[in-house]
Specification:
128 residues; Rossmann fold; 4-stranded parallel sheet; binds iron/sulfur cluster
Length: 128
């Protein structure tokens, strides 16, 4: 089982305890399909806007055993508010530059509610 470290948006900490992030990691679903079932070995925030601290925190997660770092869906998909981080691209590029292009950095944890609904509707149409 791979060990992953998750970085979340500090602005949404008081709206979400990360329940889906842990569940999707444990079940190897969502972005974790690329790795299989995963153990979350660390769950930290970006450190607050503008997100520069996420780079050092990603490095810390790797030093403490993470085999992949994951930006949570609150950052890249804007869950649960539909408000993605305006700095998500910068954050991803800076983390990848720091950790090296060979180190896995996943860009989300789970689909947004809108994506789940669309998939369910598509599945319903396919069955109907
Ligand atoms: S930098 Fe982005 S991810 Fe971090 S607190 Fe601000 S909006 Fe959230």
């Amino acid at each position: 089982m791979k060990k992953v470290g998750i970085i979340r948006c500090q602005q949404t900490e008081d709206l979400c305890p990360g329940t889906k992030d842990f569940a999707f990691a444990a079940q190897g679903k969502g972005a974790f399909e690329a790795l299989g079932a995963c153990e979350v070995m660390g769950f930290v925030s970006c450190g607050g806007c503008p997100g520069k601290r996420a780079v050092a925190r990603a490095q810390m997660l790797r030093e403490r055993g993470a085999e992949a770092v994951v930006l949570a869906s609150c950052i890249t998909k804007g869950t649960p508010l539909g408000f993605p981080c305006p700095n998500k691209g910068l954050m991803l590029r800076a983390i990848r530059a720091k950790l090296g292009e060979d180190f896995p950095v996943l860009e989300y944890t789970h689909p947004s509610a809108a994506e789940i609904k669309a998939a369910e509707e598509a599945a319903g149409q396919a069955c109907g």
